[in-house]
Every structure is written in structure tokens, then in C-alpha cells.
Design a protein that fits this description.
The structure is a homodimer of 279-residue chains.
Chain A: E1 11-14, E2 18-20, H1 32-35, E3 39-47, E4 50-51, H2 54-68, H3 74-86, E5 93-101, E6 106-112, H4 117-123, E7 125-131, H5 155-166, E8 171-175, E9 188-193, E10 196-199, H6 211-222, E11 226-229, H7 234-239, E12 242-247, E13 251-258, E14 261-262, H8 267-276
Parallel strand pairs in A: 7-8, 7-13, 10-11
Antiparallel strand pairs in A: 1-2, 1-6, 3-4, 3-5, 5-6, 9-10, 9-12, 12-13, 13-14
């Protein structure tokens, strides 16, 4: 989703306005959503015209808005999503983005699934670790750092993704300045050790709570897995049975290469986790 | 500059378009400038229709664009600034913002000086220190962290400013996770110890190189001051003769209170520094 791609196959619905031509500019030059990256968003999966776990995404967006002191009315957003979906004629998967700027422009943006997702889902991810610059406990008692808030200020996430591409990798795993595993620029790290699934703790680490990771952990618990939040170093990931990067639209994808080191795939285990996550 | 303030007294000039009604939306919903805070900007001072140190700002914007792999043509920006100024009828001071988004929407936005600047310049700043979460050397060899790049991803800077207001302060001084002085959300820290002016080193610290701080240091050197980049802890600032937060539009303002501790003002010294900085 960039400003340079054609919008011919997109649906745009604006809060208080309705569905409009997606190529129509809707944001003012002085909206701090653009001048300051000040606002929040959600990325959601659509399958055959239905949004996957809309409640969880709206709940997280409500928390983001509370942290940013932005107004949020879930009912208007539900109605907006319904309007956008009604204008979307395509079966199968699609990506829905919900955005709210400081200037209180709210909108839903619906597009086809990214072209490279089917290949990544099939082939797995080659990822590199990059420092995020923050320490593993940097966000404790520091709400102004907006830990766990899905803000529009993703320039570093995008630059890290470009760095991965430059190095021939598919994605990034951020580590803290003191060497602990954090998260991917647009996904949650989950790894399996025996019958235990682990992920990085929220809170002091500043990482975003993943809605798909949460669903996976809930369902995995019911299926007999142990699940836990645990700080880990990259070496712990090298030793894990499987490592996934979990995102709402792309789903959980197993990592086949971490910092240039090949990882054996575990197709049955991987398939079970993807299924539990709803993919 | 937020999306909710009236734009009746603003001038908006858009690259490739010219001067348009400032209330006209100019940014598309899928421009990563808004969805990802992906882009860069500059804030410049205008005095009686002339831009202060335009060359230094354009040079810094060129560096930001290079780091973000965005196109930048200084001549088009000069022409855009001239167009905006030609449409600005007001004498005295004004604030000019130059913005370029990932979707390559570029614009100049001219407004009157912020209402509280005259008071702050007269009365000085009460500031609090807040952690930025990053270590003092976090940005060394980590270009993806965009240290020194003036990106649109300022959500944390804005949240820190709101935190300051909540605590009854005027501004923030960010410190690193390991306790070293960094910068203000929209300004550079400069402090005087005897006949030496100091500021935080660029590079590994990730702070932005200030154009007004640079001019001040250049002119102060000519006026017989020593100038140096030096890491410092907050206690070092408590012991400094004067501490300033230096910004391009607001100018250097002396700090009268740091973390609740009063600081004696030094009017003659302060006046000399402001004059050297061009204020």
C-alpha cells in the first residue's frame, strides 16, 4: 500500500462520507496524520466478503485511540466496514486497512491480497534480525513511547523492510538494543519448543499485541499446547523447532532462513499452527 | 499544525500544481506518507517574506530524501517556496513547512507564528526529561533506524509533548535509555559552560542535526566561543550556566526549569546566543 500504486482495484470508504473514488485525495496538508504520523490503524483480513476477527481489531484500535487521545466510536467503524464490503465484488481473500488521523479523517481501504503472499505462504520466509534501538524494558512506565499502540509512525518499520530486501531477505525480526527478540515490522514472532508456543511479552518491550497470535494461543491452549510469553535471544530461536512471523492478513508463515542460517521445515507442525490461527 | 485548526490564514502550494485552497485535501488515502508516516519534512522561519537559511534546510531535506530513497529536486522546491511566499501578504514572522510523502506529494504550508511563541521567548521554557527508549549508541551502523532523518513519523514526539503539557511543562528533553541527553521533540539541546557551547553528538545518538544550532555554533566560533559535541547526563545540564532548546522557527529559548528545578536566567548571555542564532 503506497501512494504510487494504481487504485483501480481498491475500495475507499470515508467516515461521515461513504464510498468515494479511491483516487480522490481525502487528507488535508495540515492533518497531523501526515505531518506527524499522528494517528492509528489496523490491518484486517477479508475472506469471501467477511472480515476476520473484526471485534479484536476494533478493540485494539479503541486502545490505540485511547492512548493517542483520539475519538473512537466502534459502531461508526462497523458501519463503515459494512459499506466498504458492500462495494467489494471479489470472492476470496482481500486486505482491509482502517486508518484514523489526528485530523480525525477515518477511512477503510480495501485491496486485493498482496501479490507475493501466496508465494511466501508456500515457500516460507527468509528473515534477518535488525536492532530496533530500544532496550527490552524501555517502555515500562513510559506511555509517551506509545508501546503497543499501532500508530501511523511506521517509517522505521518500512526502512527496515527495505533493508531486508536490499540484503535479499523477505522480512525482518527486530531485536532490542540488548539482544532480545521483539517483533517483525508488521507481525508477531511465535516459536515452538516441544509442545510449547512462545512469544515476546507485551508491556515493557513495547511490542504490539497481535490479534492473530492471540487467537492462535487461545486455540492452541484448547488443543493441548502450552503457551507462554518469554524473553528470548536469537540463539534461542535458532534452537526452536519452528519459528513463525504471524500477521493478520498474511497469516503465520514459518521461517526457513534466519540470519543466513537455513532452518528445516516441519510441514505437519506448521500446518497445524496455520490451521489453529485460521489459515 | 493539526488537521482540526482552521486553515483560513494559511497558504498551501503543491509541487506540480501551485497554490491551492488550504482546505482542499491533497493526500490520497493510500499514500504511505499517511498510512506509514513515510516521508520527510522541514520547518522553516519566514521573516518579512524571506525564508531564513533556506539552503541549509533544503540540504537537510536532500539528505532525508536520500536516506528514504525519495526523489528530491532542490530547484522545484525553491520555485515552490517562492510561489507560497508570493501568496503570503503578511509582514513579520511566519512558519513554513515543507513536506514530501512516499506517494511523492510535495507541498509548502505557510502559517502565522504559533500563538505561544512570543510568551515562551519572553518567559523561557519549563521542561521535563523523558526517556526516548533508545541507547546513546543505538543508531551506529543501523541506517534503517533513520537516525538524523527528519521523517514524518513523529507520533512519539507528539505524545511526549502532550505528556509535558499534562505535567504542566512547556517542552521535553529526551534522554537515552542509558541516561544521556539527546534532543527535544522539535529542537536541539545546547548548553553553555563558561565560554564553551555544547550539544549532543550526531550519528550514533540518532538525533537530528539542527540547522539553527549549526548556525549558532558557526557564528559563536567566530565570536570567540569554543563549541563542541559532548555526551552529557542530566546532572551536567543542571550544572551548566544556561541550557537552551534551539528550533528553527521558535529560535533558542533558555530553560528556566528542568525537571522541577528552577534555573537562574542569564539575560546578557542569553541575548548574545539568541542574536548569534539570528533571533
Amino acid at each position: 500500500m503506497t501512494g504510487v500504486e494504481p487504485a483501480s482495484d481498491a475500495v475507499l470508504a470515508v467516515l461521515g462520507v461513504g464510498v468515494v473514488d479511491p483516487s480522490t485525495p481525502v487528507i488535508r496538508a495540515d492533518d497531523a496524520g501526515v505531518t506527524r504520523g499522528d494517528g492509528c490503524f489496523e490491518g484486517l483480513r477479508v475472506v469471501d466478503g467477511a472480515v476476520d476477527k473484526l471485534d479484536a481489531h476494533l478493540a485494539r484500535m479503541a486502545r490505540s485511540c485511547a492512548a493517542l487521545e483520539l475519538p473512537f466510536d466502534p459502531d461508526s467503524w462497523r458501519a463503515l466496514v459494512a459499506e466498504a464490503l458492500a462495494a467489494w465484488p471479489h470472492p476470496g481473500e482481500a486486505a482491509l486497512k482502517l486508518v484514523l488521523t489526528r485530523g480525525t479523517v477515518g477511512y477503510a481501504w480495501l485491496t486485493p491480497l498482496a501479490a507475493d503472499y501466496p508465494r511466501l505462504r508456500r515457500d516460507g520466509l527468509r528473515i534477518i534480525t535488525l536492532s530496533r534501538g530500544t532496550t527490552i524494558d524501555a517502555f515500562a512506565d513510559a506511555p509517551w513511547l506509545l508501546g503497543g499502540v499501532k500508530t501511523l509512525s511506521y517509517a522505521v518499520n518500512m526502512a527496515a523492510t527495505r533493508e531486508a530486501a536490499r540484503r535479499g531477505a523477505d522480512d525482518v525480526l527486530f531485536v532490542s538494543a540488548d539482544g532480545f527478540v521483539l517483533e517483525a515490522p508488521t507481525g508477531t514472532a511465535v516459536w515452538a519448543v516441544g509442545r510449547t508456543l512462545r512469544t515476546t511479552p507485551l508491556g515493557a518491550s513495547g511490542i504490539l499485541g497481535g490479534t492473530t497470535q492471540q487467537r492462535l494461543f487461545d486455540r492452541a491452549t484448547d488443543a493441548g499446547w502450552r503457551v507462554e510469553e518469554a524473553t528470548a535471544r536469537v540463539d534461542d530461536l535458532h534452537e526452536a523447532d519452528v519459528l513463525w512471523v504471524v500477521s493478520s492478513v498474511r497469516g503465520p508463515i514459518d521461517v526457513i532462513e534466519l540470519d543466513g542460517k537455513q532452518r528445516a521445515r516441519r510441514p505437519e507442525l506448521d500446518a497445524q499452527i496455520r490451521r489453529l490461527a485460521g489459515f
